[in-house]
Amino acid sequence: MYVSPIREPLIKGEKSYQTITDEISAPIAGKPGPLWYAGITFSTLALLVGLYAMGHTVWNGIGTWGANRTINWGWGITNFVWWVGIGHAGTFISAILLLFRQKWRTSINRAAEAMTIFAVICAALFPVLHLGRPWLAFFMAPYPSTRELWINFNSPLIWDVFAISTYFTVSLLFWYIGLIPDLGTIRDRVTSKGKKAFYKFMSFGWTGSAKHWQRHESISLILAGLAAPLVLSVHSIVSMDFATSLIPGWHTTIFPPYFVSGAIFSGFAMVLTLMIITRRTLNLQQYITVNHIESMNKIIIATGSIVGVAYITELFMSWYSGNIYEQYTFLNRATGPYWWAYWIMMTCNVISPQLLWFKKLRRNLTFTFILSIFINIGMWFERFVIVVTSLHRDFLPSSWSMYYPSITEVGIFIGTFGIFFTLFLLFIRFFPVIAISEVKSVLKSSSEKFIKK
Amino acid sequence: MKRTNNYITAYFEDDDDLKVGIKSLLEKKVTIHDVLTPFAVHGLDHLLNFKRSRIPKVGFISGMVGGVSTLLFQTWVFTKAWPLNIGGKPFFALPSFIPVTFELSVLIAAFGMIAAYFISSNIGPGSKNVIYDERVTDDRFLIIIDLEKDNSINDKEKIKEILKEIGAKGITIKE
Fold first, then answer.
1. Of A284, A295, A307, B16, which sits most exposed with the smallest number of CB within 10 A?
2. CB–CB of B77 and A204 under 8 A?
3. A451: Cβ–Cβ under 8 A, 6 or more apart, which residues?
4. Complex-level ipTM
5. pLDDT tens digits for range A1-33
6. Phi, psi at residue A292, to the nearest 5°?
7. DSSP structural state of residue A248
8. Chain B residues 109-148 within an 8 A CB cutoff of chain A
9. Any idea which architecture B7-38+139-174 has in CATH?
């Protein structure tokens, strides 16, 4: 088959269908190495710290946090937006790149989608804890209460409840639909009785019948079609939590597209952080190639530049509006007491990704890994800047304040990392990290072995 | 798909060989009961004359049901059940009902399609489908030919010959 010489193979090495099955399911069949045990120990410890901090918050109330009456959305909402944003890359890869028929998604979609689900779990914890009385969270559900009062469907905060829960459910279903055939593969390979029973249950009686594949393909396509606008709607709605308010620095119409591109930007950074480690530790370099890393870096530079333009547009609009409060807010962001947060954000999100215009750097794994961490930090600071610096200068100068996170908040943030990495490590241990059947379907069109012929 | 107790199985090791094999089987008027493959082989549904899947229709209908009922519910809440005056804004505030309507259309559509997929394919938690060959999920492309319902039982030797001719491996007759 003729393939343009500038197209690099997506699967390297002499691969047959069987070697693909063998190599991708090897981590499940074998025993995990010491690195995995070290990782799971650390992440479980972090998780326990988080559980303690969450228990402390629920027991003693929201006063254990550093939030005050001026800055009432401190770390909690910063972390919420950060985690939700990270989730967006998974859906972008699995849904939007599926609609665009990008074959390189097949090697990374499974892990990225798993990351989405785990990140949304971490994100959802924050607003629920921020309620102060999390056992009353059911007040947000439209149920016929004795007060006969319904929830306010005009509020973006209620939209968010529906958006995040739909996003989580649909991502989970989409992920699992794709997993079923691969769990069938694992079921037919494991030998021990317990494992066999486990994967038999999990694979839902998958047989691989042509009719089932036809339905599988059909449902995957339609779910991708639904998930693509869904993912865009989720972060748009998150941004409206801010944009529909009256706070200078928040009520800007640019927020929805700016938040969505920021979300995809930060999500891809997290995918790169995870995949660069995963491909090395699980020996998947021939499936997740440097070419894949480069493709992701190209998305990073595209979305990173959109984010940069959005930052500059915000500055321009605050000047152009002629509104002195708006102008002060942005001047204060860059030069006020939180100038360092603003400039960390600018350096990490706008300046550093521009280095990716150099092909050498795009294909350099060490550089990409360090840059991805930079972007993760930068995007956290973006949300911190939006939440804290917009609030800390109140309408009344007597209420002006600063934000100091308490140890409990730090503990919860560490705890979400614990939850995220514990779930991710369990995932790479018990589930196929790469979509085996999808990689097989692109073997003939995109592997080194067949392209050469 | 229901299968009788008399059937032949044979496999190929390559998807292109499988497609060629299926073509020649169909030319020789052998009815194929089912084909099991490790991944979605493109063009197989046309080859086997499958109708288009009705899952998109199920998705459309359930999405519409979800969307319309959510929109009606929100309208009822704000115009009939408890009209709430928010700064003199209209009770029927269509733009702000759109986000929840959209989210629930997607959610109900996804549930509807997955229910249709699981029920029609008989897969789901606790499903007890027969596994013909454990390597079907690895690298084998298996053809199942029913000898009672679709083909005559007396043809079994003939079908076996045809399978051998087209290069199928592991030809097994189950009676």
1. B16
2. no
3. A1, A3, A7, A9
4. 0.92
5. 666 777 788 888 888 888 888 888 888 887 888
6. -65, -45
7. T
8. 109-111, 113-114, 117-118, 120-132, 134-139
9. 2-Layer Sandwich (3.30)
Interface check B99 vs A, CB under 8 A: yes
Compute the distance between CA of residue A23 and CA of residue A37 in angstroms, rounded to an integer: 21
pLDDT, tens digit, 9 for 90 and up, residues B45-93: 888 888 888 999 999 999 999 999 999 999 999 998 888 888 888 899 8
d(Cα A119, Cα B131) in Å, to the nearest integer? 36
Residue A421: alpha-carbon gap to chain centroid? 13
Show me where the domains of chain B are located.
Answer: 7-38+139-174, 55-121
For residues A92 and A232, what is the distance between their CA atoms, to the nearest angstrom? 9
The set of residues, in sequence order, having a beta carbon less than 8 Å from that of B49 and lying 6+ positions away, is none
DSSP state of B88: T
Q: Pick from A17, A222, A438: which is nearest to B139 by CB?
A: A17
Q: At what angle do helices A34-60 and A109-130 cross, to 10 degrees?
A: 20
Using CB atoms, which residue from A159, A173, A217 is nearest to B99?
Answer: A159
Cross-chain residue pair A185–B38, CB shorter than 8 Å: yes
- Say what the alpha-carbon torsion angle A375, A377, A380, A386 is, to the nearest 10 degrees: -80
- Parallel, antiparallel, or unpaired for β B7-12 and B141-146? antiparallel
CA distance A419 to A121: 9
